[in-house]
Amino acid sequence: MSEISLLVSSFDKVKDILYIWHRQHEDKDFYFDVYYGLNFTDKNFLKGNNSQSIKKIIYSETYSWSSSLKIWLNQINSDYILLLLDDHIIKKFDSLHVEFIVNKMKEKNLNFCQLTYASNSLVNFLKNDYFFYGPLPKGKYSINLQPSIWEKQTLYSLLDNIDSAWDFEIELSSKFNKNNSPINGMFFLSKNLLFYEQYIERGKYYPKRFKEAINSDLQYLLKRKKLDKIRRFKSFLGLVYKIIKEFFGSIKEIKQVKI
Questions:
Q1: Fold (topology level) of 4-258
Q2: Cα 70–Cα 73–Cα 76 angle in degrees, nearest 5
Q3: pTM of this prediction?
Q4: 118 and 242 in contact (C-beta within 8 Å)?
């Protein structure tokens, strides 16, 4: 049994986004199993695919977000899950760094590890083969669906009475902010484990983010509308605020370790 697996969480209505994820990463050499989570069985999806990185497309046979995630987890035979959404595009990936984080999680008895923080502005101060790590701040979105590693059983146990991805972030952040929380988490940042900013919001896309994340020969695959400029500007302001808040909020407690 592999110690960790990668689960790309998707939804039947956004198979086009999952397909782009697949094409963008089909030549990437993962050392562990990769799963695509969808709702209802579709034998034609990725039919004829020859990529060795894809071990299994798994289905939930329901549109319920939390039930789907639980059913997918039950089909994955590993202790830890690297959880991504279908528009989380990998910028840099080093399997040794993933293995290092899993070992640190076991050493520190962690069950959640966030892999992005302050939109990775902190990694500019890192040397290669070093990590920054520190405690997650208390707040409305302390626990979120940005790229992360979960201890599988903990994640599974937290999915009851969750209706949507937004409920997941709010409800679990509320639990994390309380004393005796079932979630023991930190953030770990590495120059060799990076992700692009998500390029999809409300079914539309950010043109600049999409062009940065997706290879030019694959960009024709996206047939969706662009987000309007006002929404993009508001998102930019929110991102700047998030970077500043998380950057300065972590300075006092952040630590560095060599792999």
A1: Spore Coat Polysaccharide Biosynthesis Protein SpsA; Chain A (3.90.550)
A2: 160
A3: 0.91
A4: yes
